[in-house]
């Protein structure tokens, strides 16, 4: 009953937020992992291995289904350069979710599964009339991957796996105000991404009961919107002829990620994981919109991004307190892919520090996972002089700081 | 399976998380707390000219007054201990003050000509009910009867005028109607004495002083007809003013004189393009006999090859005309005057004939026959040089006075030069020094728009903050409009 209603909630709010990894990446793919700083590449905890390391899936003893939902509660503050007015987001809660179902013979050497998760997303609604209104007022970026997965244990110690990552759903809604000489107009871009296919693959090696290592890779997918809708509002008649576009197209790279992880099991009850993720953000050079007709004399709008590749370091562990109860803790440090002077309101990014905690209780075949993450996106200031030097004056000078709390709950049933 | 148990157990946990969120909002305000530093903003007065009064769109009116940079500064000073700021506002019933220019549309000429703006003067709700003054030409404005005035901006005033008795007295020799409306009837008070009285009464702790623009602007806007103030006179009077303002230990900011040749009044008409267009226009056959008749006394019987039209200007009110060069600046009104038909000349306004390689006598005769642009529509290269030199000389006086008293300096000259060459971005919105489309200059091409005044206020705040180690918050200039377009 609860399970069903959770599914409905997930269905209604399919989105992530710029939450637990740099840029617009979201790594909230498994509730157990969420409690452990997001480690998982070198572990074989549960069906979420399909996301973290499909190679480890074959080493997951249980078969089953699991569903997790997270609420990302972001609190962002911004003060424009020279101002003393703190701008705060119109707060919204978004709910990245994950769903896994894993199958296979009880004693066989392979596992198959299907995963549904939200690897990228962002939703921010800035304060009415904030200083950056002509750069951005609202963004809602969603993606859902569906991933059929197959994993095979070559030996008792070595397994590998591959998945097809299908961008099954992608949507962008981007809004900003238009500066007119004596008023503000508004533009809304709204479009759905075309379905695209990529892959992920992983290797998992467990030489002895106390040690495991893994490596995994998820390929880049270009989320491409064609024929997105352009809507103008509040444009006075005297300027109407300058805003003619009705359709847009754009491409946003969902970058490739390479991860390595190590798992250490000093005792049967204690598991410690350490992961490093390498995200190829440098593919994100510019955000370009092409319009069918002109906007203020141009059919193209380009904004420099020049992201740089970024590393994330994760450390986490779990301890089985009783036969039913397991507790977790972890931390992560996430390098921002955004260079100084390039911070945009759509991704008010900086290096992030996360602390996480979690607990599971299992009732035989049924289990509940709770997790929570506290993410601190460090204070970051860029000056107008920085923007002028970088030719990035299409964004705004000032100081951003964000804290995010992400409680989550997962249910799993093993068979 | 007892799942409700789990939910009952976790609900308080989740609720606690929710509560902790209110504490989770990052606090940046603490890092950006306003402070007065070593200055005291309790009582502020503003001394200056039209810029200080909030003049724009070739008029002084209520909305302009409300958006004057002193009003904006006073609003920001409130965050650091500033008090109320009284201005000599026009009443709501006379909100259009002197009247002002409004953009009411654009012309729709046949190509290749481009549309030009249609400017119309607002003539309702004026403050001009007192009619003309005793000089028979200056319009009297409804008197401001308040005794609390802190915005002492008087449009048109030069530093050269500040010690002149009767400068605001309605008299047959002429007077300044903006000063007249601030004074009691029949007062012969000079501006300096008026400021002295305000200082004595209000005991200001902080001031701004942006005088000096009209000491060069008048020369420039009249094409060199009104004389430039002399350096000696300016130096003496400017320092007198600064002494009055600082006598009680008040701190403040002074502003330099922008190079007026950077404003749209002088830069909108593209001289080189106008000259090129005139030069390229073929001479109509019908005009040839007329020209030859004029040139016959000089021995010209046929028009030599290469004979063409040229743009002629007068560089003073009495002397002869000469052909314009790209180094001359054409004032904004020239755009609707050049190449229009003339009642007194066979040539359209501004136009004459050029014969390449002509003798000096012939060239002189051609210049004399041309329908040259009047001096007031042109700031010729020599005048530009005089204006720039004098502006720099007077700015040296201003910065020296500031240094003598330890005052902050808003270098408006440097700032507006940069605006003219690079534009100026305010929170992601592009602005520049272009007429109408640039957002910063109002329809008179000299005075800022509300956006422009907000930018000025911010620049002054930067100067204040850096001199007095204060943290006066800046404005968001984008909250203030550029040129108002027809609805």
TrEMBL record, chain A:
GO molecular function annotation: long-chain fatty acid transporting porin activity
Compartmental location: Cell outer membrane
Chain segments annotated as coiled-coil in the UniProt record: none
Main location (coarse class): membrane
GO CC terms of this entry: cell outer membrane
Source domain of life: Bacteria
SUPFAM superfamilies: Porins
Transmembrane residue ranges: none
Position of the signal peptide: 1-21
Mode of membrane association: Multi-pass membrane protein
Assigned keywords, A-Z: Cell outer membrane, Membrane, Signal, Transmembrane, Transmembrane beta strand
The UniProt record lists the keyword Acetylation: no
PANTHER family to which the protein is assigned, alphabetical: OUTER MEMBRANE PROTEIN NMB0088-RELATED
Family under the similarity heading: Belongs to the OmpP1/FadL family.
Protein name (Swiss-Prot/TrEMBL): Long-chain fatty acid transporter permease
Organism: Hymenobacter persicinus
TrEMBL record, chain B:
Keyword Repressor applies: no
Keywords: Signal
Pfam hit, one: Lipase_GDSL
Protein name: G-D-S-L family lipolytic protein
Gene3D superfamilies (alphabetical): SGNH hydrolase
GO molecular function: hydrolase activity, acting on ester bonds
Segment forming the signal sequence: 1-25
């Amino acid at each position: 009953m609860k399970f069903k209603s959770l599914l409905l909630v997930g269905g209604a709010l399919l989105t992530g937020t710029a939450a637990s990894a740099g840029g617009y990446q979201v790594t909230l793919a498994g509730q157990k992992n969420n409690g452990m700083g997001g480690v998982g590449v070198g572990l074989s905890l549960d069906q979420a291995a399909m996301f973290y390391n499909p190679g480890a899936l074959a080493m997951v003893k249980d078969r089953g289904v699991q569903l997790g939902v997270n609420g990302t509660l972001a609190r962002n503050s911004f003060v424009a350069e020279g101002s003393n007015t703190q701008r705060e987001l119109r707060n919204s809660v978004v709910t990245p979710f994950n769903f896994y179902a894993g199958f296979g013979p009880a004693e066989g050497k392979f596992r198959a599964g299907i995963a549904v998760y939200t690897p990228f997303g962002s939703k921010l609604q800035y304060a009415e009339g904030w200083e950056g209104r002509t750069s951005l007022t609202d963004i809602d970026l969603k993606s859902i991957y569906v991933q059929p997965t197959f994993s095979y244990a070559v030996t008792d110690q070595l397994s590998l796996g591959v998945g097809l990552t299908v961008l099954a759903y992608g949507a962008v809604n981007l809004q900003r105000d238009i500066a007119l000489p004596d008023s503000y107009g508004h533009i809304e871009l709204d479009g759905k991404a075309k379905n695209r296919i990529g892959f992920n693959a992983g290797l998992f090696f467990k030489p002895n009961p106390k040690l495991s290592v893994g490596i995994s890779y998820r390929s880049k997918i270009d989320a491409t919107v064609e024929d997105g809708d352009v809507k103008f509002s509040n444009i006075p008649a005297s300027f109407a002829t300058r805003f003619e576009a009705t359709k847009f197209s754009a491409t946003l790279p969902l970058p490739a990620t390479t991860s390595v992880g190590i798992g250490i099991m000093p005792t049967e009850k204690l598991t410690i994981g350490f992961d490093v993720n390498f995200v190829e953000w440098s593919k994100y050079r510019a955000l370009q919109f092409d319009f069918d007709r002109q906007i203020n004399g141009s059919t193209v709008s380009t904004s420099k991004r020049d992201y740089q590749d970024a590393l994330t370091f994760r450390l986490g562990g779990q301890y089985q307190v009783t036969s039913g109860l397991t507790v977790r803790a972890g931390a992560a440090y996430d390098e921002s892919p955004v260079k100084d002077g390039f911070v945009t309101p759509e991704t008010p990014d900086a290096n992030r520090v996360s602390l996480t905690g979690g607990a599971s209780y299992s009732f035989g075949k049924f289990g509940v996972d709770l997790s929570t993450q506290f993410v601190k996106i460090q204070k970051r200031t860029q000056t107008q002089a920085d923007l002028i030097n970088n030719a990035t004056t299409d964004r705004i000078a000032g100081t951003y700081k964000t804290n995010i709390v992400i409680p989550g709950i997962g249910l799993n049933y093993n068979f | 399976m007892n799942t409700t148990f789990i939910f009952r157990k976790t609900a308080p946990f989740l609720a606690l998380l929710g509560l902790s969120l209110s504490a989770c909002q990052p606090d940046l305000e603490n890092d950006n707390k306003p402070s007065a530093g070593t200055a005291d903003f309790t009582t502020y007065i503003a001394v200056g000219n039209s810029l200080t009064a909030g003049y724009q769109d070739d008029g002084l009116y209520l909305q302009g007054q409300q958006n004057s940079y002193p009003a904006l500064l006073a609003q920001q000073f409130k965050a650091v201990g500033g008090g109320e700021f009284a201005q000599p506002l026009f009443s709501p019933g006379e909100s259009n003050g002197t009247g002002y220019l409004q953009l009411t549309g654009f012309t729709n000429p046949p190509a290749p000509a481009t549309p030009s703006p249609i400017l119309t003067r607002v003539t309702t709700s004026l403050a001009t009910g007192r009619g003309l003054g005793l000089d028979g030409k200056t319009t009297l404005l409804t008197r401001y009867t308040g005794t609390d005035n802190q915005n002492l901006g008087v449009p048109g005033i030069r530093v050269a005028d500040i010690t002149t008795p009767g400068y605001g007295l309605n008299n047959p020799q002429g007077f300044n109607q903006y000063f007249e409306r601030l004074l009691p009837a029949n007062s012969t008070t000079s501006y300096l004495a008026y400021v002295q009285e305000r200082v004595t009464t209000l005991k200001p702790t902080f001031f701004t002083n942006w005088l000096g623009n009209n000491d060069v602007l008048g020369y420039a806007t009249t094409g060199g007809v009104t004389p430039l103030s002399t350096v000696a006179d300016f130096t003496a009077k400017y320092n007198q003013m600064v002494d009055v303002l600082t006598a009680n230990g008040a701190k403040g900011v002074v502003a330099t004189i922008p190079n007026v040749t950077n404003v749209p009044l002088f830069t909108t008409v593209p001289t080189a393009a106008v000259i090129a267009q005139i030069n390229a226009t073929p001479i109509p056959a019908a005009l040839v006999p007329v020209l030859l008749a004029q040139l016959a006394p000089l021995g010209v019987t046929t028009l030599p090859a290469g004979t063409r039209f040229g743009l002629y200007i007068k560089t003073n009110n009495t002397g002869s005309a000469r052909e314009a060069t790209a180094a001359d600046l054409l004032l904004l009104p020239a755009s609707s005057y050049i190449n229009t038909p003339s009642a007194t000349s066979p040539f359209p306004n501004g136009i004459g004939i050029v014969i390449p390689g002509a003798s000096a006598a012939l060239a002189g005769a051609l210049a004399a026959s041309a329908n040259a642009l009047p001096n007031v529509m042109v700031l010729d290269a020599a005048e530009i040089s005089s204006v720039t030199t004098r502006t720099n000389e007077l700015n040296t006086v201003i910065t020296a006075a500031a240094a003598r008293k330890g005052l902050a300096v808003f270098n408006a000259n440097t700032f507006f030069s940069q605006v003219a060459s690079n534009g100026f971005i305010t929170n992601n919105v592009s602005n520049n020094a272009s007429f109408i489309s640039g957002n910063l200059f109002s329809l008179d091409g000299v005075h800022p728009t509300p956006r422009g005044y907000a930018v000025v206020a911010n620049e002054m705040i930067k100067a204040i903050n850096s001199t007095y180690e204060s943290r006066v918050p800046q404005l968001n200039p984008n909250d203030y409009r550029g040129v108002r377009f027809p609805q």
